[in-house]
Amino acid sequence: MNRMPVALQRRSGTFRPPTLQTLPVAVTANVVKIRARTRSTIMAVVKADGYGHGAVTVAKAAVAAGAGWLGTTSVAEASALRAARLAVPILTWLHPSGIDAEAVAATRVDVAVGSMDELGALLAHAAPTVRVHLHVDTGMSRGGCPRGQWDELIGLAQRGQQARRVRVVGVMGHLPLAVPADIDSADRAALTGATLRMFDALGCAGVARVDFFLTDDGPVLNEVNTMPGMTAESQVPRMFAAAGLSYEQLVARLVERATGPDPRARHLSV
């Protein structure tokens, strides 16, 4: 599957765009391996156009291999999957453009709600009954209702269910974040070195979150987030706090670095 070109190369006097080829057989093989190691139902998350690999292509390959659910970030993404005749259950969360209750009903998808405002807006428009999962923050600070508001969210959901506006069918959340990570000094040094090399190679400045898988062969890059969450409860501020730099100090240092004589200075040392 060819994706949009991101650059042009000159070859034999002509311009040929580089392409990205998605291999459905690789997706299928991965899902088969995961299914062999669990009795749980597998959800294949295909948000952001299947992470750039084609949502429909990846979704069909995953479902063919036995994935029982699909996940997206918006109802619009879920609608595209339904249009491709994918009939398995779909859960959508994040909702960057809000929740279109009518589209939810039309596409027969489940929605996760992670705040009082989000659930309240859905209750104001939900008709017929919408299947809802309560999205709670269990400690990783990757979205969801903060612990201090769980009771309010559950109470509102109960009232919405009694009024037949929603039906609560599940609870979701990210696994808690371990800060600082429990790793030995050798692994910590390997991860630190790999992070700094990637940070410099990409020309990053200020703060970026660089995620790795730690394998027997060393760190393997997962992703680089150049605009990580920066609330007091987000991952990056909590990591700096574990290293001795408070949230207020972190923000002040970032502002100082951005407005100083050399805004291109990159590494933010603790």
Q: How would a textbook summarize the main sheet?
A: 6 strands, parallel
Order of helices and strands: EEHEHHEHEHEHEHEHEEHH
Give the beta-strand count.
10
Q: Span between N and C termini?
A: 45 Å
Q: Going across the major beta sheet, what is the strand order?
A: 3-4-5-6-7-8
Q: If helices are DSSP runs of H or I spanning 4 or more residues, what is the number of helices?
A: 10
Strand content: 15-25%
- Structural class of the helix and strand makeup? alpha/beta
Contiguous runs where pLDDT drops below 50 for at least 5 residues? 1-11
Query: What is the helix fraction of residues, given as a range?
Result: 25-40%
Tertiary shape: globular
Give the integer mean of the pLDDT values.
85
The value of Rg in angstroms is 22 Å
Explain what you see:
- The protein contains ten helices and ten strands.
- The chain has helices at residues 24-35, 47-51, 55-64, 75-83, 101-107, 116-125, 150-162, 185-201, 235-242, 247-259; strands spanning 9-11, 14-16, 43-45, 69-72, 90-92, 110-113, 130-135, 166-172, 209-215, 218-225.
- Strands 3-4-5-6-7-8 form a six-stranded parallel sheet.
- The protein is globular.
- The protein starts with 8 loop residues before the first strand and ends in an 11-residue tail after the last helix.
Concise account of the structure shown:
With 270 residues, the chain is an alpha/beta fold. The protein contains ten helices and ten strands. The radius of gyration is 22 Å and the shape is globular.
Write the topology of this structure:
Elements: E1 9-11, E2 14-16, H1 24-35, E3 43-45, H2 47-51, H3 55-64, E4 69-72, H4 75-83, E5 90-92, H5 101-107, E6 110-113, H6 116-125, E7 130-135, H7 150-162, E8 166-172, H8 185-201, E9 209-215, E10 218-225, H9 235-242, H10 247-259
Parallel strand pairs: 3-4, 4-5, 5-6, 6-7, 7-8
Antiparallel strand pairs: 1-2, 9-10
Helix pairs in contact: 1-3, 6-7
